[in-house]
Write a structure and sequence with these properties.
The chain is mostly beta strands. 0% of the residues lie in helices and 52% in strands. The strands form 2 sheets. Strands 2, 4, 5, 6, 9, 10 and 11 form a 7-stranded mixed sheet that branches. The chain is globular. The chain starts with a strand and ends with a strand.
Length: 129
């Protein structure tokens, strides 16, 4: 399973960004997904969780500002799974490297990084005041 992220960048406080994560696994519908971030001098923290049925859960400090989702696209017989993290009302405390991650079934459903089997390479988000 390979995860490739995109969509990071620099934005001013109050702005928005959307991160994407393309997943190369045909059976990904049964996996759970997570978005994590790691700021400077901080540990890895869970931001959003997407269950295999599409239900979501968020960390308290992003609730109401971030929206996680996933989409399956089928084209010419090929299936592509994409995860999204829509981030609004960004503030400097959101500055971090953001990672998408996949947890093979059965899912633990937690924000514990050790539960996730596969990780993307990360994409940097920088929010200036």
């Amino acid at each position: 399973v390979q995860l490739v992220e995109s969509g990071g960048g620099s934005v001013q406080a109050g702005g928005s960004l959307r991160l994407s994560c393309t997943v190369s696994e045909y059976s990904y519908a049964s996996y759970c997904s997570g978005w994590f971030r790691q700021g400077a001098d901080k540990g890895l923290e869970g931001v959003a969780f997407i269950d295999s049925d599409g239900s979501t859960r968020y960390a308290d400090d992003v609730k109401g500002r971030f929206t996680a989702s996933k989409r399956l696209t089928i084209s010419s017989g090929n299936a592509t799974n994409t995860l999204y993290l829509q981030m609004t009302s960004l503030n400097p405390e959101d500055t971090a490297m953001y990672y998408c991650a996949a947890e093979a079934p059965p899912c633990d459903g937690s924000f514990e990084p050790n539960q996730y089997n596969y990780w993307g390479q990360g994409t940097q988000v920088t929010v200036s005041s």
